[in-house]
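Study this protein:
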Amino acid sequence: MHTVWSRGRLLGQSELGPERSFPGMRMGDFEPSPIGERLLPVILGVSPAVKALCEIVINAREEIEQKGGTPPVGEYPDAVRQTTEYADAVSIQDEVESLALELRDENGNVVATDWISFQDGHRLAALAREEMAAIDPDLEFDDDLEPWEPEPPRYQVLVALEGFEKRMDRRASRRK
């Protein structure tokens, strides 16, 4: 059993599964502590903020191209940096970084990581329903057809062990 901590506070625990498709990445269901339950909305706010920012970036790049310009490479167009979506994404990421998340093994030893991330299964299911309804507005959902017993855990944790990002960068550069 691994645990996730923030500045000396236990956020929760997970039986991280074995390595799967990416060397150095682990994931598993996450059982939050009471403090973890309170902090997870802050941590999970990154994904919606980044999604909103991505939509703004795509629109800004398209607008630049429609006017015959070339969008800047590796940076945000000026118009993007002036949006509330940009400010939200930057500030939420700063909040998450200030939590100083750390992974500890079953003996309480800190495990070196490149990053720790969480997913909310309920939010992902709601997004899937929205996408499916957008494709087929007549689609009806019947929750009685799939009674989950027991209900699956709400949260999952994803952990990139130290060196994961470098391995992925090397892998990407070999493909170019």
Remarks:
- The chain has a mean pLDDT of 82.
